[in-house]
Amino acid sequence: MQSVNRYVQYVTHHTLVIRSVVDAQSREPLAMHSYIVSDGRARLHQSASLFRTCDDKAEQSRIGRANRFLHMDDMLYFKGLGIASFDFGGWYGGTTDTAKLAINSFKESFGGYRRDDFSYIVPLTIRGWLSVLVRAVARKIS
Q1: What fold characterizes domain 2-141?
Q2: What pLDDT score does 66 carry?
C-alpha cells in the first residue's frame, strides 16, 4: 500500500500526470498516457493504445485517432498549466526498424523540433547502486 500512496503523492503534486480517453458508450479505455512533469517540462513516460492488437482496420483507425486526439489534448492541458515544453520522449536514430520509424513520423506530425537530451539514473545509496546493477544485468540477459 505504501507504493500506491507514493504515486498518489506524485499525482497530487502534478509531477506524475496520467490521462486517458475512453469509448463514450462502452467506457473501455482507447488510449492512456503518463507524463513526468518538472521544471516547466512535461515528458511522455508511457503511451498505450491497443490498435496493434485489433484485426479490424476501422477499429484500428478509430483507436489511432483517439490516441492522436489524446496527445493534442495533453498538449493543451499542459499549456493550460503554464508548462512551456512538451516532450514526446525518445527518438529512434536508426533507419531499419519500420515500426519505430513510423513512431518518429507520428511525433513529427505534431510539429515542434527535436532536441537531444539524456535521461539517466544517479544512484545515491547502496540500495540505489544495487538497483542500477540489477537493471543492467536484466537488460543484458533479455
Answers
A1: Aminopeptidase (3.40.630)
A2: 94
